[in-house]
Amino acid sequence: MAKDSDKCKVIFRDRSNWYTSRKEGMEFAASKVIIDEANDHVMGVHILGPNAEEAINIFALVMWLGLKASDIKKLVF
Question: Are the beta carbons of 10 and 34 closer than 8 angstroms?
């Protein structure tokens, strides 16, 4: 778990121009992933947009298993 002295990296993506967002007619869609730089663990995720409930489940599993953010890049979807 991150402490106050630890640094976190925040990755923000505006997803409002993605095809899935436009297809659903959503004006706002975004995602934010918070990563602890000390150990590369995902500390939190915020998702707003279509299919957010499915995407957040993937991140919940990553956090529950204690995987690193770099491990997510190895996954094949």
Answer: yes
